[in-house]
Amino acid sequence: MTATNDSNENRHRPEGLGLSTKFVLFISLVIVAVCSGLSLYFIRQQADTMRQTLTEMGTILVKNLAHNSRYGLIARDLVLLEQLMNGVMDVDESAYVVFTGPDGKRLTAKSKSTIYPDHAIAESLIRSNATDVTITPFTSDHDRRRDRLYDFAVTIHRGNDLTSPFFSFESEESPEEPHPGARRRPLIYGVVQVGLTEEKMNNALNTMISNVTIITLMVILAGIAATVLLARRITTPLKTLVTVVRRIAGGDLTVSVESTTRDEVGQLTTVFSQMTEALRERDAQVKQAYRELEQLNQTLEQRVLQRTSELQAANEQLKELDRLKSTFVSVVSHELRTPMTSIKGYVENLLDGLAGALTDKQTRSLERVKHNIDRLTRMINELLDLSKIEAGRLELHLAPINITDVVEDVLDNYQAAARQKSIMLRAVLHASLPMVRADTDKLHRVLINLVHNAIKFTPEGGEIRVEVGTRDDDFVEVTVIDSGNGIPPSELDKIFDKFYWSKSAPVEARGAGLGLAIAKNLIELHGGTILVESVLGKGSRFSFTIPVARLYS
């Protein structure tokens, strides 16, 4: 059923982009990015080259014009200057030619579209006495069209080769003789300016951009077409393989696929064909196993019924044996209690001297007998309690009691035993403790077991504290803390099991192994919990909770 649901879910799940589409998109993006980048780089390089060529052309034109117009500018020969300007204006890129005198006044000028440079350029050159070509780009708005121009300006000054028998090129006002060693400033005769426009360059650049764009688009389209063909060649066998896989997943193991290429896809197809053949063989083996399993199932139900009947009979026998065991333990323990009580009485009479004076050796022997009788009595009582608990015959007489009285009574009874081992036994009682709902005798028994164990496993000079406080509004918590040898971590989860003794406990301190098991059962019958915490070599901490007594109207 799960496989069918998964199959339906996969059938209705929307399909994402196929491998062919992803491959074409990726390669197309790469082709577009590479071709676009190369085209932009080529256009940028061509634009820079054209701009550099325009700059070199303007520099050459203005320098030649400055050299050829020296004598015309000095002699104020406007006809010569006009001829020179016409020669420059024949250049397609030329926009204007301007001659400016040394006084800053414009001598003559010519422009193709009434565009002239800023007069401040020539004035700045005259003031600075610059001798190099100055290039100033600017934008002009003409006939509602913005045009980018470059102004090439150079000063015409007196040089060593400007000598003539007809003209004197000295200033009308004879300057004072310069100080020997001082550098003489050049004498400026004027400024020539040539303006070149980017219009022709832009037209050529636009034409080139159009051609490059067309070529780039053709390359991109050709690349995408080649990518589509390559993707189809790769993905067509894969699609065929996917179709076969789906049919096999649907349970049709009769289909097969032939390899048409020798590349990785062809190798995959060959391996898949081998896998399909192996599946057919495995399917035949599984069917044979199912047939054998059906034959086994025909007799399995009868075998199960037979084994179930046998298990039920064995279980009934075990229950009967357990009942007989509990009855036997209860009867034996009860029968043993009477003679043990009688023996204990006679021993105590002997120790009290009722049968005459005793020697020290006899006294020690009788005290040891009395100690072992007390030990056997506790073991018998534990067996009786355990048998009653397991049989469900243990009754609790619940009533509101003061737990402080129970704690103080138990500690008073064990003060003598604690003093024999120089152990400090004390109680830490919190103020305003509420009454608890418990069976006094059973609670007394739990606390006796915990305190007795604490004294037994605490070395001489140790300390035992019994702390009582409220855990919350519903429970009172009693904690017995000792400074004994502690319990190994591996034994903490077994310490409350029946008939369990800690491996670290000395042989003389071992009992029947029922005290903590009985304490746990009694606390749980009261509705509380009992826990143990211990650090090996530092002591143990046993704590249990008892419900608070509630007063109902």
Overview in brief:
This protein has 553 residues and is α+β, with helices and mostly antiparallel strands. It has helices at residues 2-12, 19-68, 70-74, 78-89, 119-128, 199-249, 264-352, 360-391, 403-420, 440-457, 515-525; strands spanning 94-100, 106-111, 134-142, 145-157, 188-197, 399-401, 424-429, 436-438, 463-470, 475-482, 530-535, 539-547. α8 crosses α11.
What keyword list fits this structure?
5-stranded antiparallel β-sheet; alpha+beta; 553 residues; 11 helices; single chain; 12 strands; 5-stranded mixed β-sheet
Give a topology summary.
Blueprint: H1 2-12, H2 19-68, H3 70-74, H4 78-89, E1 94-100, E2 106-111, H5 119-128, E3 134-142, E4 145-157, E5 188-197, H6 199-249, H7 264-352, H8 360-391, E6 399-401, H9 403-420, E7 424-429, E8 436-438, H10 440-457, E9 463-470, E10 475-482, H11 515-525, E11 530-535, E12 539-547
Parallel strand pairs: 7-9
Antiparallel strand pairs: 1-2, 1-5, 3-4, 4-5, 6-8, 9-10, 10-12, 11-12
Helix pairs in contact: 2-6, 6-7, 7-8, 8-11, 9-10, 10-11
